[in-house]
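sanity check both lines:
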Amino acid sequence: QVQLVESGGGLVQAGGSLRLSCAASGSIFSINSMGWYRQAPGKQRELVAAISSGGVTNFADSVKGRFTISRDNAKNTVDLQMNSLKPEDTAVYYCKMRHMVRGIWYDYWGQGTQVTVSS
């Protein structure tokens, strides 16, 4: 089993910055990806950014140029640096880890952390 613990959410004014961190523990296999999703009230959960164990990144168009994602494979952590935040970035942010076990992908989610950007 895998556990994900997130930290770093909060309230910030538009234009400000926040850094989210996620630490994974448990039985983690090396072929994996880690990332961040978000869900605003009344909307579907959407990908924000993801990074593979090889360092390949993927960003939602809405955050390109403002957010960066990084990970520490030795510590199984992933961070999301959010700059130039906008009110529309307000959402619950979830950490997700995916890894392959015997040819099958498994997904794990954190409990979520609230990010609120005031205008």
In short: Residues 93 and 113 are 5 Å apart (CA to CA).
